[in-house]
Design a protein that fits this description.
The complex is a heterodimer. Chain A is mostly helical. Chain A contains 6 helices and no strands. Classes of the chains: A mainly alpha, B mainly alpha.
Chain lengths: 169, 118
């Protein structure tokens, strides 16, 4: 077992453990903090996939911004948790469990026919080349989606101001 | 390839070790004689007003959303900046269009007063 496999197993175990704690924590702030651990584990998996840029994006956007937004959103709610003592389970939890099981069986079934597990890892390109390729394709091949992304960001900005600002005044 | 990330891993290891050491040393050697005054959230500071788990103002939410949006904008800059010299003027104009669209949103937020706290 190589160093990469050990690192992957450690990161995957950390993601799974943290994800279980996210859904079982009674205190919503604790759940949000465990979510940060899970997201960080995913960033490590990105690194192992030679996707360094996505690892940075994962840390900067998901941990640095979205997790903070989660914590703010939790603090906007009246019941942060830990005190009501009620059941955490929805009454139709078995439907969700059944659907998740079916989904997992489907994923395992599809993956079992995939040949990639038996083959060697192909040689990966240098990451500096990868990021310059990304930069070049952003302003050539994917120019339209790139410019549309800014329109999407402006729409999100105006929407956020509209829902949270207009009524608070 | 993993060797590229070795400095980062050493940094994480050092940061974890330092944090653990600071907490552990305080626990080991620090005297513990708590009084009511010392157990306050801000010792020698302001007296707490109300419970710690109260609802926050919705303004924090807006600030967080604005931060995410401009954060994503910066993420788009990174791959572009790496090849900025190769792209010449065309890449510059394309990025200018990208920023100008976002500037519209920025001016809207500014005019609405969303950047003011009062």
């Amino acid at each position: 077992m190589g160093a990469m496999q050990i690192l992957f197993l450690l990161a995957a175990a950390a993601v799974l453990g943290a994800a279980i704690l996210v859904v079982t924590s009674r205190n919503l702030v604790h759940a949000a903090l465990w979510l940060i651990v899970a997201l960080f584990g995913v960033a490590v998996v990105y690194v192992l996939l030679n996707a360094g840029f996505f690892a940075i994006v994962q840390v900067v956007i998901y941990i640095g911004a979205i997790a903070i937004l989660f914590i703010f959103a939790v603090m906007l709610t009246r019941q942060i948790g830990g005190k009501d003592g009620g059941s955490q389970n929805h009454s139709t939890w078995w439907v969700a469990a059944l659907l998740s099981l079916l989904l997992m069986v489907g994923i395992v079934w599809i993956l079992s026919t995939w040949q990639g597990f038996a083959t060697e890892l192909p040689a990966l390109a240098n990451e500096k080349e990868l990021i310059s390729e990304l930069g070049k394709s952003l302003v050539s091949t994917y120019l339209l989606p790139f410019e549309l992304a800014s329109v999407l960001l402006v729409a999100a900005l105006i929407g956020a101001i509209y829902v949270s600002w207009e009524k608070s005044r | 390839m993993l060797n590229d990330y070795l400095p980062l891993m050493i940094l994480f290891g050092l940061a974890l070790a330092l944090a653990a050491m600071v907490v552990a040393l305080g626990h080991l050697f620090g005297p513990r004689r708590p009084t009511d005054r010392k157990s306050q959230p801000y010792e020698s500071g302001m007296k707490p007003i109300g419970p710690g788990q109260r609802r926050m103002s919705v303004r924090f939410y807006l600030i967080a959303v604005l931060f995410i949006l401009f954060d994503i904008e910066v993420v788009f800059f990174l791959p572009w900046a790496v090849v900025f010299r190769d792209l010449k003027i065309v890449g510059f104009i394309e990025m200018t269009v990208f920023i100008l669209v976002l500037l519209v949103g920025f001016i809207y937020a500014w005019k609405k007063g969303a950047l003011e706290w009062e």
